[in-house]
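Re: weekly structure request thread

Next one in the queue (89 aa):
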Amino acid sequence: MRKVKSVTINGKRWRVEWKPLRGEYGTSCNSEKVIEMDSGMKDNVTVATILIHEMLHGMWPDVEEDAICQRADELCLALNRVGLIADDD
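Done, posted below.
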């Protein structure tokens, strides 16, 4: 897995910072255009789900958490089913 340093969300460049996070896999800050990802994550599907989750927060900051979680899970399941992301096992 390659740890990206930036992503584009709604036409804006966001930094992606990989660091140990306590009790969370990822966070996002719309005002600073930063996504923090837990550096301890190893599973590709989990990393993809969390990155997509945080990117969705950046795209739609006013959408409720449950809706973001559901959409991220649906997108990652589709990517997994077509073989674009897979568990490291």
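Residues 6-81 form a domain with the Zincin-like fold (CATH 3.30.2010.10). The longest strand covers residues 12-19.
Next request, please.
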